Amino acid sequence: MPDTSLDPARLLRSPNWYRGATRWTQLTLAEDDPVKFSVDEWIDVFRRTGSNAACLSAGGYVAYYPTKVPFHYRSKWLGDTDPFGALVDGARSLNMHVMARVDPHAIHNDAAQAHPEWVAVDAEGNPRRHWAYPDVWVTCAYGDYNNDYMPNIVREIVREYDIDAVFANRWQGHGICYCDACQTRFKAASGFDLPRVTDPADAAWRAWVAWRRERLTAMVVQWDREVQAIRPNASFIPNMGGASLMEFDLATIEAHCPFLVVDHQGRHGLEPVWMAGRNAKRIRATFRDRPVVLITSVGPEEPVHRWKDSVTTGPEMATWIADGAAHGMLPWFTKFNGVIPDPRWIDPVAKGFGFHAQIEPALAATQPACEIAILDATTTLRLHDLRQRDAAEADEKGFCHALVEAGLAFEFISDHAMTAALLDRFKVLILPNARCLSDAQCAMIAEWSERGGNLVVAGESAMAHEDGTPRKECGLAAVLGTQLAGTTRGPLKNTYVELLGNHPLNAGYDGARRIIGGLRLTAITAGPDTETPFLYVPDFPDLPMEEVYPRDSATKPAVVTREGGKGRSVHIPWNIGATFWDVLAQDHQRLIENAVRWALGAPSMVEIRGPGLFDIAVRSAPGARLVTLVNLTNPMAWKAPIREIYPAGPIELSIALDVGARSPSARLAVSGKGVPVTLRDGRAIVTVPQVDILEAVHLTWQEPG
């Protein structure tokens, strides 16, 4: 019989309502929508997309209901209507779950004049007008506006409407606020003046990062308590970016956020499609069992060029949704403006939501399971401003892409949520550039290695304490068998590394004696129980052209391997991940793949053969394995939007079985077809004839006894 435990109708208004909210529609209204948009048209969209939950504009910057809170700006087109209430009623008529969206990041002139203390202040002491709409004012996120005034609006919405949660957008603030209240509170809490630079080496900046985290965490708690005081089964749900868990105390998130919302609405610039699934893995790095929702925009996403009321291509939307779903994210689409002048987004969203519905039963019955993990360097990234994190994450993104190219499934572990038991789930741990780690974190990783865990350590990992101050030695030196022999230099040009001897790490280079090096190099020495398959070529000029030749022979270690103890280790003391992410040199991809496969020491849980590029996820349960394949084979894979889908296949999967497994069978969850299974060396061999956007192989077997 079908499992009805997650049926939205059965979960309505219950403490576990959110477990039935698995496909979301978000409608963000424009101010003139009350006289322009059609509620009935949107109820039809709910039906067509198969949505079972809705997030609807309620108030904050603009109220879309007849608010009675002073200075809560009503839409000037509201009249005697209640568009928010009508949408809530329409969604509830379909047995949908409902969240009310509020946006506290800006206020109008009347509120700013009556309460200047609500307005954010820049470093020069000027009240901040809105950067995109100077007629209004940016609010201070850390003071009285969010902590004293906005709760009045939250209470009114929760009291007057049949909703399950309040969702806040743009609530974390926009940089440092230099208002009198922030200056006074920060000084009292830290002893510092507010910092003027975003420098992780500056003690005042580090204190600001910690103080901001405390203020935002307290706000999550306060708003959640305000909601639950009126509706005990409801919650406050903060909007989050892909790395947003760094902004909060983890125990607070666990206590107050039953599910998490990631606001990464689509690709921009040269982002690959697998970035959607990366969001799921990064959240799982901290909270492995909490539902996570991925917001997808129906329009193009670019940080500089903004067309929020627009439509991107259908294949782009469907693929982005599919990649998130394949890695366990619940789909959510957002439409800005209630009027629909261009309806071309509706069918692709319905297609993406349909993919999720097709694989949802198999996802619900399995858990993420693979052997390779990347350390999410929260300790390091917390010291960087949001605007700096994209560059700070370049090493990790380079390793991610190298593994995707290699067809290797991987997960993340957050260094803030790392435990011995969690580490023991994996055979290989990769540190792309986790520069800042505490002594306790280093000790936990070293002890895991002594239990048989295998390490791939790159860049400047473990070369600084948790507060950013440099170490005299790498915190993992004893495991890696290396020692620092100098400071890190860079950025450099025209660097190379030379192959030495015959080692699995320098296999596959077809006779090349040297390959491209990195941009930031750290000098190390290697211990007697290590091997050095690559050496640094001493860097030399890149101009004039007549001077472009090496002066000295290569003698210093550039890659060090070790098989001491019970685990293997690879040390690459240069920024191979960031360099690969920047230039995509195939030699760097090969070196990363060789290092991970050598550290793994055996075939991975799932091996893939066949034409095309796929983002792979692996999940398991007793007697079952689920392998999802997202087809990334596309000439537009590195620049949105994808305009056409290029089917790939046939694909042969070799899937590891549990010891003693009998009578395996396989079904393709998207196409709904069974496929033959053959056994080879204790592994199941399954051929997938073709993958358009998404396919999922659900392999089951009888367990011993």
How would you characterize the overall build of this protein?
This protein is α/β, with parallel strands linked by helices and 705 residues long. The radius of gyration is 26 Å and the shape is globular. The strands form 6 sheets. A 9-stranded mixed β-sheet has the order 13-12-14-15-22-21-20-17-18. Strands 1-2-3-6-7-8-9-10 form an 8-stranded parallel beta barrel, surrounded by 6 helices. A 6-stranded antiparallel β-sheet has the order 11-24-25-31-27-28, with helices on one face. The protein has 3 domains: 21-364, TIM Barrel (Alpha-Beta Barrel); 372-600, Rossmann fold (3-Layer(aba) Sandwich), CATH 3.40.50.880; 606-702, Golgi alpha-mannosidase II (Immunoglobulin-like, Sandwich). The longest helix is centred in the first third of the chain and has 28 residues, at 203-230.
Brief digest:
With 705 residues, this protein is an alpha/beta fold. The chain has a nine-stranded mixed beta sheet with strand order 13-12-14-15-22-21-20-17-18. The protein has an eight-stranded parallel β-barrel with strand order 1-2-3-6-7-8-9-10, surrounded by six helices.
